[in-house]
Write a structure and sequence with these properties.
By secondary structure, this protein is an all-alpha fold. The chain has one domain. It contains 4 helices and no strands. Keywords: Membrane, Transmembrane, Transmembrane helix. It holds the Pfam family DUF3054. InterPro entries: DUF3054.
């Protein structure tokens, strides 16, 4: 139990960094500004989804686990992020949903897979 608790802040930080990196790369690839405000505007729907995923998965119990934690956090990040984007009039084109799903899967599941190899 103590070891899991010590990983929780780092795991949460890794998820937040992954989502912010995804949003920053997306903004850059579409020639949008890389300002803090711009990245925050793009990231907040996905970060909300990440937070909901953490709660649904009770990620603090097994923060580095691919299943169920990583998958629940990833799916929640994408689904809730896209729903919030749609509700606020931001883009949700099918191609964006596919790219966002694949990229966030690589990031949110990828860091966990790498971390698991060191445990």
């Amino acid at each position: 139990m103590p070891r899991t608790r010590s990983r929780t802040p780092a795991a949460l930080a890794a998820d937040v960094v992954c989502v912010v990196v995804f949003c920053a790369i997306g903004r850059r690839s579409h020639a949008e500004g890389l300002t803090v405000a711009g990245v925050a505007e793009t990231a907040w729907p996905f970060l909300t989804g990440t937070a909901v995923g953490w709660l649904l998965a009770r990620a603090w119990r097994r923060p580095v686990a691919l299943l169920p934690t990583g998958v629940v956090v990833w799916v929640s990040t994408v689904v809730i992020g896209m729903l919030l984007r749609k509700l606020t009039g931001q883009g949700t084109a099918t191609s964006f949903i596919v790219v966002a799903s694949l990229t966030t899967a690589a990031l949110l599941l990828g860091w966990r897979a790498i971390a698991r190899s060191f445990v």
